[in-house]
Amino acid sequence: MLAWFYFIVLSVFAWGPSFFFIKLSLKELGPLNIVAWRISIGLVFLCVIAFLTKVKFPRDKKSVIHMAILGVINTALPFTLITIAGREIDSILAGAIHGSIPLLTMLLAALVITNERLTGPKLVGCLFGFAGLMVLLSENVNFSGIAISGHWYGILIMMSAAVSNAVGAVYSRLTVKDLNPLCVATASMASATVFMWSAVGLSEEPFTIPTLLSTHVSLFWLGAIGSGLAYYMFFYLIQAWGAGKTTMVAYAIPVTTIIIGIVLLDEVLTWRITIATSLILLGVYAAINLEKIRLLRKA
After folding, report:
1. How far out from the chain centre does Cα 175 lie?
2. How far apart are CA 87 and CA 183, in angstroms?
3. Structural Rg of the chain based on CA atoms
4. In this structure, which long-range contacts are made by residues 32-36, counting pairs with CB atoms below 8 Å and at least 24 apart in sequence?
5. How do residues 237-260 score in pLDDT, each as one tens digit?
6. Residues 6 or more apart from 134 whose CB is under 8 A from it?
7. How far apart, in whole angstroms, are the C-alpha atoms of residue 186 and residue 46?
8. Cα(133)–Cα(279) distance, rounded to whole angstroms?
9. 198: which residues sit within 8 A by CB, 6+ positions away?
10. pTM over 0.85
11. Contact of 279 with 134, CB cutoff 8 Å
């Protein structure tokens, strides 16, 4: 019951509105500053919870290294890519691409996790998802061929973020599944924080302290809710459900993103995004439910 509660909170309230708050933050800050501030706030939030619950962190070298790597591939890198993409594409389009994470995770898990092989139903789901992504990339289809979307740069960056999240989900399942989820979330967030502030220092983007109220509110939400609380719940679900099922959280995110984008950002839901999102979500649905039918028949 707790797992399902976390699932709903994560998909609807934590990560769903993130694209909206990223858009607000980009009005004042650069992408690297946004991510650095975001995960710093998330780290503070997690440290407070860890202190209050008196959780004990693992000290063995292997676990520390795994959590540090996880902080980069599952937090710092995808957050940065998502934020950069936020300057190039609408939040509705970003949310649609984000919905492909479960399918990417299935493909990757099938390659590296022995008990999560790629079955027929999963393959059908992946084909639907691939078709959806191709629709997102195509501006129009005519007799002269497919014209690549003018937003291709932002789309490819967002797709890279989805791949990074999928890698992180599978990596965490393989390396830190036996560790306390609060430990994993806190330690990986600490690693991401160090990485991002180092990136700000080494980049041409100047260190910036936010001044606008909208930016403060956005960063607090992105940090405390969309990073700190969200990552604790995410790693809890990884341990409870496994990598493939947990990433189904992305199933509800496009719906939330579309509603927020239309209502608060005056974005337009085009036929291309509608069809693509439907194909991606249909692929996720098919992969889950057809797989359940296959297992029932096999039993």
Report:
1. 19
2. 33
3. 19
4. 32/80, 32/196, 32/199, 32/200, 32/203, 32/205, 33/200, 33/205, 33/207, 33/208, 34/83, 34/219, 34/222, 35/76, 35/79, 35/80, 35/83, 35/196, 36/193, 36/196, 36/197, 36/199, 36/200
5. 766 766 556 666 666 676 677 777
6. none
7. 6
8. 9
9. none
10. no
11. no
Which residue from 172, 189, 161, 190 is spatially nearest to 84, judged by alpha carbons?
A: 161
| The token pair that represents 50 in the structure block | 């860890």
Give residue 65's identity as a one-letter amino acid code: I
Residue type, 61: K
Find the mean pLDDT for residues 74-83: 93
